[in-house]
Amino acid sequence: MTAAPDRYEFHHEDETHLETNPTLNRIWHRIGVQPTIPSVGLNRRVTDFGSVEIFGRGRGDVVCATQDSAAFHLYLDALDARHQATGREMFLALDNGPCHTSKASQAAIAARDAWLHVIWLAKYSPELNKKEREWRYLKRDVRGHLARDLRSFVDEIIAGLTRLGGERLDIVDRVPDWFLAGPRRVPTGRPRGRPRGVKDSVPRAKKCTNLPAPTW
Predict the structure, then answer these.
(1) pLDDT above 80 (res 216)
(2) At the fourth CATH level, which superfamily is domain 8-21+42-180?
(3) Cα 25 from chain centroid?
């Protein structure tokens, strides 16, 4: 890669959760007084699938609402766009997370084998992943205060990713509208509560009624 930098890129990929509750790094407080911080009540979080090019040629990040194979596919789509724009083949260092090793993700990686070459890292080796070191800076600089609303929360994360810098920044906002509207999961459209007529796959334990009456 060093001999042909115009042909190849080498990305270290990782993902992290970013929560609406502020991340505490350090705080001033009076001796003997327990420090408190405001919160939004119900904590919410988004996931950033991101990579950094180890030779300083930028980054690719996708901010979304889940951490699963479908979200990893969104990141691969962002790599598709970067590959088409630069024309470079990519080496991608990945850990052995479930969203990377699932059958769907393996098929998506195999479909891009003409230009995407995966290097699997050893298990439990975050020190080998350069992207791991960036999360603490992002959380320190962006998540040290309470966001006004969910839209501002996501916008601040994207601004923080931009400040990390690089030659080419491919930062994609894929946070769905249903998340910004308030639900924590994808709405099903069904009314709340237990549907009428539903049956348990495992019978519930019946309440025992033939025990002797208590003597106290």
Answers:
(1) no
(2) Ribonuclease H-like superfamily/Ribonuclease H (3.30.420.10)
(3) 21
